[in-house]
Amino acid sequence: MSDLTPDAAHAVDRYLVDTLVGSDPALDQAIADQKAAGLPDIEVAPTGGKLLHLLVRMSGAHRVLEIGTLGGYSTIWLARAVPADGLVTTIEAEARNAEVARRSVDRAGVGEKVEILVGRGADVLPRLQGEPAYDLVFIDADKESNTIYLDWAARLGHPGTVVVLDNIVRSGNVADPAEDGSQIAGVRAGLEMLRDDPRFDATGLQTLDAKGWDGIAIALIV
User: Fold this and answer.
1) Which of 90, 131, 141, 207 could form a disulfide with 68 if both were Cys (CB 3.0 to 4.6 A apart)?
2) What is the residue range of 173's domain?
3) Residue 1 has pLDDT above 60, yes or no
4) pLDDT surpassing 90 at residue 2
5) What is the mean pLDDT of residues 84-112?
6) How many helices (H) and strands (E) does the chain have?
7) Considering the domain boundaries, does residue 1 fall inside one?
8) Which of 185, 172, 138, 177 is nearest to 157 (CA)?
9) Cβ 86 vs Cβ 113: under 8 Å
10) What is the mean pLDDT of residues 78-96?
11) How far is residue 188's CA from residue 26's CA, in Å, rounded to a whole number?
């Protein structure tokens, strides 16, 4: 199995999930409830959820900001990583999605550490000014607004805040000059902002997992 094929990549992903992530009833049920409610199948992969969990723990984050809740799968990973007195503030544009997420995080036993705010990120984020700074920000919402979300991550964070920007490769389309849709344009603008804005120091990684060929950018606020 030395050649990179879709079947080989999926087999490796299954192996990594089985070996390093495992199965979890609360997380499995969150995915099942999301599907039953007709929400899109766009949550992070299990390996990605575990990565977020470890980044919170490695950075010692107490306050986490998530932009894009969906059904609460990644929210559970984040909330399990913050300490007992920690908080995950997660923003979801769709009220129905937020209802599904609330049930899932409560069932997972982390509801007391999760604050779900309903509304468009660009509208909700200004309301967080004056709150204590966030230690980690996970951005996984509409790609057209990536630069808006990154700007607010810098404003609401502090030197040392970790920022994770999801879905930066888009099946390789980010590097295809012929691709000029609004989502790809938003991804490129976000990456260029991470390159040019002195508030950030960043890198990007390709991923090939249960969600397909994509990637993440990881940045530090400096």
Assistant:
1) 141
2) 6-221
3) no
4) no
5) 97
6) 8, 7
7) no
8) 138
9) yes
10) 98
11) 35
